[in-house]
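Morning run. Coffee first, then this:
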Amino acid sequence: MTEAEMIERRRYRPKPGEDLHVFAYGSLMWRPDFPFVDIQPATLYGYHRAFCITSTHYRGSEEHPGLVLGLDRGGQCLGRLYRVAPMDAEKAADYLHRREMVTGVYIPRLLKVRLNDGKDVTALSFIADRAHAQYAGKLSADEVVAKIRDAVGIAGPNIDYLRNTVLHLDEMGIGDCALHRILRMIDDPKDAT
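And here it is:
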């Protein structure tokens, strides 16, 4: 099977007449670019946010690959849950497919996320495909910094992706996590603790 066939095979089609819930953990938190009727904090269990995806399109190039976030196995991830109205669900799912499935490095999955009120909701999530060539695996903070520092793709500098994500984590009350440390290492290598 070609990668194009695999990407098409992974296309998510929402059920007609139902809301579409989308779990965001990276750039979708700050740039959803699809219509939604509600947004709230949510936690995904069993996966964590990690710079584990090599980017040669949005935030890097073939000559200087960058890194973007993926959901990798283990732990938990606090993000944002978007609710898309039934009339916009198909259009939003098509948009997300075009945006997230430039290659087959993500696997769209319906996963349960927990809202702050304790309610569980099934949401479309994009997890890292560990078998894909762009899966970078677990990298040290130094390796992440080296890849992000100067990488630029069609969506702009890789560092901007990191800064925007950290800003939105701060807005959600998620302070001083691994992404904050990576940003400090880039901005002021002497103050990287």
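The first helix runs from residue 3 to 9. Good start to the day.
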